Amino acid sequence: SAVISQKPSRDICQRGTSLTIQCQVDSQVTMMFWYRQQPGQSLTLIATANQGSEATYESGFVIDKFPISRPNLTFSTLTVSNMSPEDSSIYLCSVLEDRNSPLHFGNGTRLTVT
Amino acid sequence: GQQLNQSPQSMFIQEGEDVSMNCTSSSIFNTWLWYKQDPGEGPVLLIALYKAGELTSNGRLTAQFGITRKDSFLNISASIPSDVGIYFCAGPSYNTDKLIFGTGTRLQVFP
């Protein structure tokens, strides 16, 4: 299966700042998604990263807060903007290699906002 | 919307014991996936189920796709310390590629 690399693996950020998380895959994949996992919780889908066009956001998530880029079939970024302590979570990149494959995850970015 | 409820929420067992956990939904799923998440890592796929009634094994793990398509079970036999982690069931949201995740079962194994 595809190897998914996320950077940074963790960060501690000040309130009001922004952080961009990168997701690099070692092969072209059909779909890329971004999930959030709040402390002690399950995974919640933030958005589908669409290649060459605006991401598709789930209810409760907006582009101004979580801008996403996907310039090609192997790379995507998620920015957490104007951070507050409530944004402290693990952010996970996931990919579908093709529509017949199950979803695979990167190791996540553990974000702490102080 | 579709939801996946897992039980139990957490388990504390002795090494060598068998473990059973389940995942239920009020709506039908066409695929059931079981993931394990170790601390500090992303979820890793354990087993994928694609047909109602299907029973699939992966080493000491066995998972079943419920006949009603509204539930799935994961069993772990002869547990070992490295089985510690959080187990999530997941299934695709109706007519999409987007996965919905269950609430998770946290497993702790004592030597």
List keywords for this structure.
heterodimer, A: 114 residues, 7-stranded mixed beta sheet, B: 111 residues, 6-stranded mixed beta sheet, 5-stranded antiparallel beta sheet
Layout: helices, strands, pairs:
The complex is a heterodimer of chains A (114) and B (111).
Chain A: E1 4-7, E2 10-13, E3 19-25, E4 31-37, E5 43-49, E6 56-57, E7 68-72, E8 75-80, E9 89-96, E10 104-105, E11 109-113
Parallel strand pairs in A: 2-11
Antiparallel strand pairs in A: 1-3, 3-8, 4-5, 4-9, 5-6, 7-8, 9-10, 9-11
Chain B: E1 5-7, E2 10-14, E3 19-24, E4 32-37, E5 44-49, E6 55-58, E7 61-65, E8 71-76, E9 85-92, E10 99-101, E11 105-110
Structure notes:
The complex is a heterodimer of chains A (about 110) and B (about 110). Chain A contains no helices and eleven strands. Chain A has about 110 residues and is mostly beta strands. In chain A, a hairpin with a 7-residue loop joins strand 9 and strand 10. Chain B has about 110 residues and is mainly beta. Helix content of chain B is about 0%, strand content about 50%. Chain B has strands spanning about 5, 10-15, 20-25, 30-35, 45-50, 55-60, 60-65, 70-75, 85-90, 100, 105-110. The relative contact order of chain B is 0.33. The model of chain B has no long low-confidence stretch (mean pLDDT about 95). Chain B starts with a strand and ends with a strand. Classes of the chains: A mainly beta (about 110), B mainly beta (about 110). The interface between A and B is medium-sized, with 21 and 19 residues.
